[in-house]
Write a structure and sequence with these properties.
A 6-stranded mixed β-sheet has the order 5-6-7-3-8-9, sandwiched between helices. It is an alpha/beta fold. Strand 1 and strand 2 form a beta hairpin. It has 2 domains: 236 residues, Rossmann fold; 80 residues, Alpha-Beta Plaits (2-Layer Sandwich), CATH 3.30.70. The chain contains 13 helices and 12 strands. The two termini are 38 Å apart.
Length: 324
């Protein structure tokens, strides 16, 4: 999924005005009969940033994304997508928005190139520039060698990559991604992260909903946590990382006995050895660095030292503590 982004993302506005170029949602409500999926939810997705939408199943994430994409009319609230109202101006929203659902449905008799051409026709893009853009996007998501094969032969991961290309056909100002890493292999996930960061750097407003929180740790600038259909917290990822007072780290050594003996001699709290190492609660990165240096000086053959969970995963677990 690596490659030049010139055609796919050119023309992005500079970071800044979230109301004009990003997404604003205030007091959004959407019910399905007696079930309230979204209950007075607030959201801001600034241009030039990647915003993570984090929450448990049933929190209302997909419902909110459908509202933003103008595919579902809210019962109440105010929404603006790059300045357009999805209720009164759905055509305007779709012109500036790229939407990638969690499951990518395809016309299986069409080739990957024909799928993108059909989308380009729907946006009324001129044929020659559209053809160049389609070729660029197919190379970007590493489907150029399958461009003229029916989509029914594509794997789930390949269809996900085609879904990303489809979302970028119209060079959107706002990109809505629902579980974009689902079905992707490790290399494709890394490349997806790079593409998303590049889009944000070019002024796009990117909203990503995902259960792969480790991916979001590396991808997102800020996180919006939702639960029970409501926004419960908003935090910059950098601030969340700085605010972590104490978290678990994993230490792995070639000799567990030597590792445990050194930790005990140092008076360091630790758990029992597990397959992925020994858990040690630490107060900061500096404390982890000091511990690692002491272990190396003591001759312990340490082969791994890393946080047991990412910042967003820790925040998510704290928010869902009552579900235990």
């Amino acid at each position: 999924m690596s490659g030049s982004m010139t055609v796919a993302v050119e023309g992005g506005a500079p970071p800044g005005d979230a109301a004009g170029q990003g997404v604003l949602a205030r007091g959004v409500r959407r019910a399905f009969g007696s079930v309230v999926a979204v209950d007075r939810m607030d959201l801001e997705v600034p241009a030039g940033q990647v915003t993570a939408l984090v929450g448990p199943n049933g929190a209302g994430k997909t419902t909110l994304l459908l509202v933003l994409a103008s595919l579902l009319v809210p019962d109440a609230g105010e929404v603006r997508v790059a300045g357009h109202d999805p209720v009164t101006d759905p055509t305007g929203v779709r012109a500036v928005c790229g939407w990638m659902p969690d499951t990518f449905g395809t016309w299986e008799s069409l080739t990957a190139r024909e799928v993108l051409a059909t989308v380009a026709d729907a946006f009324r893009l001129p044929r020659r520039p559209a053809g160049e853009r389609i070729g660029e996007l197919l190379r970007l998501v590493h489907l150029d060698d399958l461009a003229d094969r029916p989509t029914q032969v594509l794997s789930r991961g390949q269809k996900q990559r085609l879904g990303l290309a489809r979302a970028l056909v119209n060079d959107p100002q706002v990109l809505l991604l629902d579980e974009p890493a689902s079905g992707l292999d490790p290399r494709s996930r890394i490349e997806l992260r790079g593409i998303v960061r590049e889009l944000a750097a070019r002024g796009k407003a990117v909203l990503v909903s995902s259960h792969v929180l480790a991916e979001l740790d590396e991808m997102a600038d800020r996180a919006v946590f939702v639960a029970g259909g409501r926004t419960v917290a908003v935090e910059a990822v950098s601030a969340a990382r700085a605010a972590v007072v104490r978290r678990d780290w994993k230490l792995r050594a070639l000799d567990d006995a030597a590792l445990l003996a050194a930790l005990d001699a140092r008076g360091t709290e630790h758990g029992a050895p597990e397959r992925d190492g020994v858990t040690v609660p630490l107060g900061s990165d500096a404390e982890a660095a000091s511990l690692l240096a002491d272990l190396v000086r003591a001759g312990v053959p340490v082969v791994a030292c890393h946080p047991a969970a990412g910042v967003l995963e820790q925040a998510y677990l704290a928010l869902t503590e009552d579900r235990r």
